[in-house]
Design goal:
The chain is an alpha/beta fold. It has two domains: 62 residues, no CATH class; 154 residues, 2-Layer Sandwich (Zincin-like), CATH 3.30.2010. 35% of the residues lie in helices and 22% in strands. It has six helices and ten strands. The structure holds zinc ion. The site of zinc ion (ZN) has 3 residues, from loops.
Length: 232
């Protein structure tokens, strides 16, 4: 990462902001490494910049501790372990609709800044194609009926189940191995019986999926390891 604080004009990368609510001079650094000097109204700018100079060491140290955001790299291929598929990704200019499956295993995405969104829409299509019938077959196998299912791209949850028995599944489940996905389907189907995480609920989950603890732990950590395009 190009760190402007290694250059002599480092002050230029600091944003100055006068805040009527600020009661004292302070330096703010956000999680993306943006530095802001916040001045109370009427505070002398020259003095504020002198203060900034005295804090340079602290600012550099703080910035060095911030992990840079994962760069948004164009994928050359997308692996969907849940359904044992691998797609080669090619980019095309002016592609209508943003994406097209040229043939099974070859996905075309439109050139341009909106490719992550197109890729997510394609993943939702894949989710409808594969996660919906998968849920239906597990439901039939375990005799746990549900009312409806929606595939979405939630940022923090793998799935949910409403009191009426409508299940939401995250399209990113396709990026996981099949075992935790099957567990997640069972987890949501069990909520059609118990709308909570009570002991009785977990007893039911354990009866239907004895290894549920391992899969539950895997799911908890997995969201943070998803590719950057999923939330860009
Ligand atoms: Zn739950």
């Amino acid at each position: 990462m190009n760190n402007p604080f290694l250059h002599d004009d480092w002050r230029a990368s600091v944003a100055l902001r006068v805040s009527p609510r600020a009661r004292y001079l302070r330096i703010r650094i956000d999680h993306q490494g943006r530095v802001e000097l916040v001045l109370p109204r009427g505070y002398d700018r020259g003095e504020a910049l002198q203060f900034l100079d005295t804090q340079r060491g602290w600012v550099e140290k703080t910035l060095s501790r911030i992990t840079p955001p994962e760069p948004l790299l164009r994928p050359e291929q997308i692996t969907l372990p849940a359904i044992d598929q691998c797609w080669q990704v090619d980019f095309r200019a002016g592609l209508r609709g943003g994406f097209r499956e040229q043939e099974p295993g070859i996905l075309l995405l439109r050139e341009g800044d909106d490719w992550p969104e197109s890729l997510r829409r394609w993943l939702t299509v894949q989710g409808k194609r594969h996660l919906v019938p998968w849920l239906a077959s597990v439901s039939a196998e375990l005799a746990l009926p549900f009312r409806g299912v929606t595939i979405r791209g939630q940022k923090t949850r793998w799935g949910s189940c409403s009191a009426r028995g409508n299940i939401n599944l995250n399209h990113a489940l396709l990026l996981l191995p099949p075992e935790p996905v099957r567990y997640l389907l069972i987890h949501e189907l069990c909520h059609t019986v118990h709308m909570n995480h009570s002991r009785a609920y977990w007893r039911l989950v354990e009866r239907l999926c004895p290894d549920y603890r391992i899969h539950d732990r895997a799911l908890r950590g997995a969201m943070a390891r998803m590719p950057a395009w999923l939330h860009a």
